[in-house]
Amino acid sequence: MGNIQLMSTSLANQIAAGEVVVRPASCVKELIENSLDAGAKHITVSLREGGIAELVVQDDGVGMDESDATLAFARHATSKVYDEHDLTRIRTLGFRGEALASIAAVSRVTLTTRTRTSEYGVLVRVEGGEMAPVEHVGATYGTRIEVTDLFYNTPARLKYLRTVQTEQAKSVEVVQKAALSRPDVAFTCQTEHHVLFQTPGNGDIRAVLASLYGVGEAKQLLEVNETTPDYKVTGLVGRPTQGRTSRSGAHLFVNGRPVRNLAIHQAVIQGYKNRLMIGKQPIYSISLEMDPTLVDVNVHPHKAEVRFSEEADVCRTVARAVAKALDDTLLAPTPQRTTARQVTEVQPLALDYNPAQHEAGAPERADGSAAAGAAGGARHTGGHAPAGRPSYPAGARAKQPALRELGAMYASSPSEGVSQPDAHAGAARDVVSGDSMETADADIGMDISPQARKQNWHLRPIGQALGMYVLADDGESLYIIDQHAAHERILFEDFYQRLASGQVHAMPLLAPIQLTLPPTTYTRVTKMAEQLAELGLTVEPFGGYDVMIRTVPDVWEGLDVHALAEATIEALPNSDLARDDFFQTMYDVVATRACKAAVKANWHLSQEELEALCRALTKADDPFHCPHGRPVFLQWTGKQLEKEFKRIV
Question: Taking 70 as the threshold, does the pLDDT of residue 385 lie above it?
Fold first, then answer.
């Protein structure tokens, strides 16, 4: 007798279940997919002990007759695929015909279903893969499936389940993704104690996100809409200040199917164009629609991943859609209101300011403290006399070559000067942006919905504060500008535009830079030497894994070119990119490194330089974020200030 034997049906089903049913969330996913494929408009998911003891999925779909209800538990029985050609154009969520058989092999399942044309319902019980006699019962239209005692007959698998809280969280996450993928379907997720969340099923994705994350958070999200002959991209993306430290807020759907795809996620990040802070991940819910022949959904055991026939095209479309949504929207963050503290003691305000003494250099008072505004107080222009500017280190401006050129870089004709505030400038700038899902407050009386960017924006500088910030207004709002972040943004865009237009040239080095690189990095550098040369960085092999850098981009003049060259080489992409994508990536790298020339804290700016900084900032493509994603300024509208000072209620 040979050693090879056929498995029993029960054993084969339990092994197959190991690929499909990993935890209660796996059952929830498969059953919800069946409900959606059945045309359900209302789906209720009930969990007991995280779904381990019992989970119930009930829908109002088309239901099944007796023959379909019994055949549905057979392995590879499906109503969605009929021949091999159907695999290339799958439009349903389920198609393998394994879900019910796999679930029933490791649990006790009760199915109750009724079609619209039937006078009674059908009840089917399956325990450990064994089906009991079918019963006719009274039932509502649709299908109800109860799964109890999951893994009761496979104790080894039951042992490796996590805590009830963890398993419940995983199941709830599945329901949330399903609700986001189909906003036209009303979902209810509940436990034995209470309802966790509900969605209205009105087709509004923002309403679904409001149910999941709160109204205040959902109102801040920006609409994405891009259509090409092959793809349609829709959904919502978060503002840069809504970024998270994990990808928990990233939701991608392809033809209605929740999936994971790192390339698409990176395309979304690319669309933010340096607006995200380092270490932050965007939040979004993006739906991709395309011809089913352009995507293969049969590449993952849990159907959690897909493969695109033209992934690069899809990524470019997504990045373009996200960039357009952000470019067209005002992204100015507004300070969050904090709870007022009780004032228990009021200190008297010293008003012993002596203009003559200030002009003379502000000698020390009798108590030994220096008079406020000792340095720079006598040097100001215009009609805005500072009441005591802070002291700056001597010679600070001499260390900053780019600062001296700021006024010349953005000089305008006399008629363009610093314009008077536009009567309508800033009218649309009452936007709140929180730093996380928990910071948005929808009850503070401010409009936090997306606003369009204002054209012909003019800022009037008022002065500097604390050595780091510039105060300005536009006639409607007050702004506190981070002078370093603002100058970084201005320099970045100037350098980037010069790079993109081919106006950056190679600057020869008197002493070439020799670098010893790791083998993998050396291979990338030598392979991309021609493209690096077009950026002004000439790299030549120098024996072994050494390279010699003989020229650098002229935008690095006056900076630490050795450190910048090393950082640029380290930032080279690991994978092969199309020519346009490579240069897009490297422009960001080179320009961002050049921003080290920006003004620093405690560097005094003259009135002319303040005006030039504000003028250049208003002309920037993205005046809201520095190249590293930090906010450039905070904004208070006149209405907000009036509320804070209780002038209006």
Answer: no
Give the residue among 397, 419, 335, 375 at the shortest CA–CA distance from 618: 419
| Phi, psi for 142 (deg, rounded to 5) | 110, -155
- Both tokens of 112, joined, read 């109750």
pLDDT bucket at 84, cuts 50 / 70 / 90: low
CA distance 490 to 421: 22
Task: Please tell me the pTM assigned to this model.
Answer: 0.65
Q: Would you give the DSSP letter of residue 399? A: G
Amino acid at 208: V
For 318, counting Cβ atoms within 10 Å of its Cβ (0-12 exposed, 13-18 middle, 19+ buried), the class is: buried
Strands 142-148 and 108-114: antiparallel
Q: Rounded to an integer, what is the distance from CA 337 to the centroid of its chain?
A: 24
Q: Tokens standing for 123?
A: 């009840």
Token code pair at residue 362: 């502000």
Q: Residue 164: left if φ>0, alpha if ψ -120 to 50, beta else—which one?
A: alpha
Q: Which two tokens stand for residue 198?
A: 């509900």
Task: State the pLDDT at residue 2.
Answer: 67
Q: Residue 438, Cβ neighbours under 10 Å: how many?
A: 11
φ/ψ of 634, rounded to 5, equals -110, 155
Tokens of residue 239, six digits:
């503002």
Cα distances (Å, whole numbers) of residue 405 to 189, 289, 392, 400, 478? 61, 49, 20, 9, 27
Query: Of 644, 645, 620, 647, which is closest to residue 632 (Cα–Cα)?
Result: 620
E strand map for 307-363: 307-308
Taking alpha carbons only, the member of 598, 628, 632 closest to residue 618 is 632
Helix or strand (DSSP H, E) at 159: helix 155-159
List CB contacts of 191: < 8 A, sequence separation 6 or more: 46, 47, 48, 168
The CA distance from 378 to 359, in Å, is: 6
Tell me how far apart the terminal alpha carbons of the chain are, to the nearest angstrom: 92
Q: Establish how many alpha carbons lie within 13 A of residue 483's alpha carbon, considering only the half-sphere containing its beta carbon.
A: 26
Say which amino acid occupies 349: L
CA distance 32 to 92: 12
223 forms beta bridges with: 236
Proportion of the chain in helix, strand, coil states, percent, rounded to 5: 35, 20, 45
Give the Cβ contact number of residue 330 at 10 Å. 20
How many CB atoms are closer than 10 A to CB 535?
20
User: Above 80 in pLDDT, residue 284?
Assistant: yes
- Give the other-Cβ count within 10 Å of 431's Cβ: 21
Tokens matching residue 450: 């997306």
Residue, of 349 and 68, whose pLDDT is higher: 68
User: What pLDDT, on a 0 to 100 scale, did the predictor assign at position 383?
Assistant: 38
Q: Residue 338 burial by CB count (10 A; 0-12/13-18/19+): exposed, middle or buried? A: exposed
Q: Which residue do the tokens 């503070």 mark?
A: 444
Give the strand pairing for 231-237 and 633-637.
Answer: unpaired
